[in-house]
Design goal:
Oxidized Rhodanese, domain 1; 141 residues; Rhodanese-like_dom; Rhodanese-like domain-containing protein; 5-stranded parallel sheet; globular; alpha/beta
């Protein structure tokens, strides 16, 4: 019987730090400017559905981080055409604070997406700056 390897090789923050060396980032202000100018081909939100429902950037497409590889691969039954048809467009990836989005952007880059940028500070920074936010509304509430 083998003993479990309890020695951690890399921490989550180390993955993020390494990704930041390879992936460009926009501030929330830069992201808004690019969106307003129509320069973003796809705004991808990699948060979880429960986070999305509490508010998201208008025009964003939801692709939770846990399903990203399947959504981005046109050969899978889960492929999202909103994503797979934008391989060369500017893709702006956002999450809550910037960690998941930088890792997601790195994943997309390694899958052959050529122009991927992460939004530093994520949705939290976007909302803090009082930029437009869409919220899910339920009929009758």
């Amino acid at each position: 019987m083998s003993t479990p390897n309890t020695e951690q090789k890399k921490s989550a923050s180390q993955f993020v730090t390494e990704a930041r060396k390879a992936i460009p980032e926009f501030t929330a202000a830069q992201a808004k400017e690019k969106l307003d100018q129509g320069q973003v081909g796809l705004l991808l939100d990699v948060r979880e559905p429960a986070e999305w429902e509490k508010g998201h950037i208008p025009g964003a497409v939801l692709a939770p981080r846990g399903m990203l590889e399947w959504y981005a691969d046109p050969t899978t039954p889960y492929a999202k055409p909103e994503l797979t048809t934008k391989r060369d467009a500017l893709i702006l990836v956002a999450c809550a604070s910037g960690g998941r989005s930088i890792l997601a952007a790195q994943t997309l880059q390694s899958m052959g997406y050529s122009n991927v940028v992460s939004m530093a500070g994520g949705f939290n920074e976007w909302k803090k700056r009082e930029y437009p936010v869409e919220e899910k509304t339920t009929e009758g509430k």
